[in-house]
Amino acid sequence: MDPSAGVRHPAEPWRIKSVEPIRPTSADERRGALAAAGYNVGLLPAELVYIDLYTDSGTGAMSDRQWAAVMLGDESYSGSRSFYRLEAAVREYYGYEHVIPAHQGRAAENILSRCLIRPGHHIPGNMYFTTTREHQELNGGTFHDIIVDEAHDPEADLPFKGNVDLTKLERLIDKVGAGQIPYVSLAATVNMAGGQPISLANLAEVRELTRRHGIPVILDAARTVENAWFIKQREPGWAERTVSEILRETCALTDGATMSAKKDSFANIGGWLAVRDSHLAEQARNLVVVYEGLHTYGGMAGRDLAAVAQGIEESVREDSIRTRVQQVAYLAERIAEAGVPIVRPVGGHAVFLDAAAFLPGVPREQFPAQTLTCALYLDAGIRATERGAVSAGRDPVTGENRYPRLELVRLTIPRRAYTQSHMDFVADSVIRLYAQREDLRSGLEFTYEPETLRFFQSRFQPLSASLRTGPQDPPDAIGPT
Fold it and tell me: 294-312 pLDDT, tens per residue?
C-alpha cells in the first residue's frame, strides 16, 4: 500500500541529518531592512529573511549522496571524470547525445542564443521567461508568445495550460517565414504561467508541425521532471509509465535543451546545454570556452559536476517528485480555503498569488505584485518573488512598461528544505494579509531602474505610509524567541 494514500500531507521520503538555523526578526528590523533595500525584497540580506521563498533555484537541500559526490569530485581542468559522469547521466535520463556543461541555466541560454539567433529572427515560445527572452532580444531576436489563451487566465483550471496554440504558431510561420525562426522555445513546466505543464500530445503536434518546416525545438528542461509527473497524473495513457520514461519521451520530441540543474537536479549550482546536432554542439563548445571555461567543465567545479550527476539520478524517483508536488499543493490548499485568489491549477514548484485580485485597490502602474512582496516581508519575514509588470520590463521599441495579464507573486518552495510547519506559517501570513487587503490602496514607484532584468536590481519608494509602517498588528518577533 502507498503510505501517502489519503494523507493530506504525506511524510517526506527522507529524514533530516543537518540543520541550518534561521534567525527571528522583529517588525522594526523588517521595516528598516525593507527601506534600506529600496522596497525590493531581492536586495534584502538573507540573514534577515525568516522563510525564503524567493526561488527554488539552487536553494534546495542536497542529499548525503550528493555531498559524498562533492568529496569525490575530480578537479582536473580537462577531461574530468566528473564531466563524464554528468554526460552519462544526461544521456541516460534525458536522451541527448551532446552535453556541454555551463555554470547555470542562463549561461546555457546565452550560448544557445549566440549560436542560433541573428538580428531579425523571431522566436516563438509558450510564454516568455525573463532570462530566456533577454538573451533572445540581446542577440537581435523578437519573442512571440504562442501559448494557449487560457494560460493568461489565473482562474482557468485546465490540466495543461502550458500547451502551445498550434494556430498561433502556424500564423507566425506563415507571416515571417520558417527561415526567420531559428527554433521554437518551449518550457516544461511554464514558470510565468504558474508552473503549468505541457502535454505530450501537444508537444508531439508541435514536433510534427516544426518538422515539416525544418524548425528545431529547444526545451527549457529545468523543471521537466515536474512536467513528467503531471503528465503521469493528468494525461490519458501515461499513468502506468514511470517518470523516468515520460522524461525520455518528452525530450525525444525536441532537438535540444537548456538546463538549470539548480531546480529538478537539487544542485546548488550548475547547468548544461544538450543537443542532437553535432555541428551545433561544436559551435556551442567553442563559445563555452570563451564565456564559461573548457567544454568539459563549463564554469563548474568538478565537485559540482558530480553533485549534478547524482541529483539527476535522484530527481526521477517517484517518491521524491510526489512529495515535492504534494508539499506545494498543501500550501496552495491552505491558502485557497481562505478565499485567497491563486493561479489554478497549482503547479509543481510554487504557489502563485493573483496579486491584481489580491490588491484590487493598487493600480497596475503602481505594481501590485511588487507591493504584495513587500507586505509579506513586513508581516512575517517571508521573501517571495514578483512576477508581473516589473518582471515583464519595458517594450524595447516603445520604452513603455509591459503589463502582462498575469500580475503574480510567486511563493517558490525550495526542494527538501522546509517542513509542513513552515508551510503553515506562510499560509497564516498570506491569509492574515488578505483579511487586511483594504488597507493597501497604493503601491510603489521606481527610484532606480536598470536597463535589463530590472526586477533583480530596481529600487522603489512607497506611495503611501502603509508600506512604510507594515500591516496592522504584525507578529513582533518571527519564530521562536
Answer: 999 999 999 999 999 999 9
CATH 3.90.1150.10 intervals, the chain:
27-56+318-469
pLDDT at 94 > cutoff 70: yes
Work out the average pLDDT over 72-91.
97
Known catalytic membership, residue 352: no
Q: Examine the residue annotation and report whether 387 is marked as an active-site residue of this protein.
A: yes
- Beta-carbon count within 10 A of 328 CB: 22
Is the separation of the CB atoms in 375 and 367 below 8 Å?
A: no
CA 371 to each of CA 30, 58, 70, 338, 368: distance values in angstroms, whole numbers, following the listed order: 15, 25, 40, 21, 5
296 tagged catalytic: no
Q: Residue 80 and residue 388: Cα distance in Å, rounded?
A: 42
Pick the CATH number of 27-56+318-469 from 1.20.1560.10, 3.90.1150.10, 3.40.1130.10, 3.30.70.20: 3.90.1150.10
Model pLDDT, residue 69: 97
Is 403 among the residues known to form the active site?
A: no
What the block records as the C-alpha cell of 450 is 536598470
Position 481 confidence tier, pLDDT thresholds 50, 70, 90: very low
- Tell me the C-alpha distance between 293 and 111, whole Å: 12
Active site annotation includes 54: no
- For the question of residue 31 being annotated catalytic, the response is no
> Helices marked H in 54-179 — which ranges?
64-71, 81-93, 105-116, 130-138, 166-176
Helix axes 318-337, 420-435, angle to 10 degrees: 30
Is 315 in contact with 261 (CB distance < 8 Å)? Answer: no
**Residue of 129, 160, 418, 460 with catalytic role:** 129
pLDDT tens per residue, range 376-409: 999 999 999 999 989 989 988 898 998 999 999 9
Topology at the third CATH level for domain 64-315 = Aspartate Aminotransferase; domain 2 (3.40.640)
Catalytic residue among 165, 220, 255, 354: 220
**Is residue 339 within 8 Å of 21, Cβ to Cβ?**
no
Q: Which of 25, 130, 131, 210 is catalytic?
A: 130
Beta strands in 15-54 (DSSP E): 51-52
Does 460 qualify as catalytic in the annotation? no
Q: Rounded to whole angstroms, what are the CA distances from 241 to 152, 222, 321, 347?
A: 30, 21, 14, 20
Q: Which of 20-24, 57-61, 142-146, 265-269 is predicted with the least confidence, judged by mean pLDDT?
A: 20-24
Q: How many CA atoms lie within 13 A of 262 on its CB side?
A: 18
Distance (Å, whole) CA 448 – CA 213: 44
Confidence of residue 452 (pLDDT cuts 50, 70, 90): confident
Q: Exactly one of 77, 403, 448, 456 is catalytic; name it.
A: 77
